[in-house]
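Batch 3, record 17
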Amino acid sequence: MGAQITDDHLNAFVDGELKPHDAARVTLAITSDRAIAQRVARLQQMKSAVSGFADAASVPDIPLHKPDRRPVWRAAVGLAGMAVALVMLGLSIPSLNRTAPETAIAPGTIAPTFMAQHDQWTAQSQISADFDLPDDYVWMAPVMLSSNLRLVYLASSGAEVHLGFKGPNACRISLFVTAAEGGDGGLKMDIAEPIQHAQWQTGALGFMMIARDMAPTRFATVATGLHLNSRTHSPDPAMQVALLQAARLPCNA
Amino acid sequence: MLDQTHQAVILKMRRSLFGYACALCVDIASAEDLYQEAMLRVLSARSIPDDETAFRVWLFRIMRNLWIDGLRAAGRLPDFDDDADIDNIAPNSGDDLVVNALAVRQAFRTLPKKHRDVLALVDICGFSYSETSKLLDVPQGTIMSRVSRARSALAIKMQENFTIVALPMQRPSRQNRGK
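Prediction for the assembled complex:
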């Protein structure tokens, strides 16, 4: 650094990037020159303010998991594609289907009461806050975090629980959990727009998932992920990558 | 694949990563998308740097490259590459400014992309000039002058914002009202 102390040097001083000898020179200048002292003080204030630029924003959660040996990326793409394909074709895929074949269900079989509750919730969800998942449903967290869906609505009536999830791009998903007779029912889905729904049964619980105008791939991937986790209660790494990818797909509701 | 050391670094850096995304994108929804997409690339990467510093640089470079790809796809890359306004900023700009955090952050949002990029890496993400020079593939001296110019530009933006919101110090007299 020459005799002249430039603005570049003052900024580097504030960033702790000057060599000790040069930093000493700037320090001396600060003590003897009020204008330089004020300039350095302002630069430090600006640096401090910029450093907190995103402090108020909540960081989206990304579930990390223990690695396995499988090529996750390929498996994820495959799972997402299969989730949609099996529904559209009414086929079953062994890796996703551990107890019963998934099948497509005919449109219009959704219970009107669920649809009405979903529409009622979405109509009022502008003033919603985030909830923590209840203890009984924490197994949903990896799927919902990967899908960038947050629990913003929770209501229960008798044995029925209504969980409302909100995501970017105006996505809203209702998940109804009801009491069911024991047994495992395979995943059934209708992903034809404008109303998508999926249902399955795990033990004594029945699940009904509803959305409007959601990208079919996204809906199918979330439903498949929830269906798997409701049985295993542990996330599948490939499925999580598929969910992350599908999370960028839009909703129009 | 990510081992536990890499995962620990990501967990430690996630606020900085998201802060960087916010700085680049300005609006939160786009920042969430960029962050999500970057994490997707990281989780599915086949080759990952072993060295922690290199890994940190690699993480942010993935995000930055995605952001630049997005600008390119939207036909807004010339906006990023335009250095004209960067070279015309006088040093010591905005010296008579009263600095407060809110004003700085509002002004930061309106900075040209190149200024936001370098200031975010140094101030939000905490990279040294040396690390930033590796990340941006430019000499360390260039980083030093870019940071200086970016802060000068920030000070100018703050002055502009201050001018826009400034209220008259004195009430107009009754006689002058309506003229």
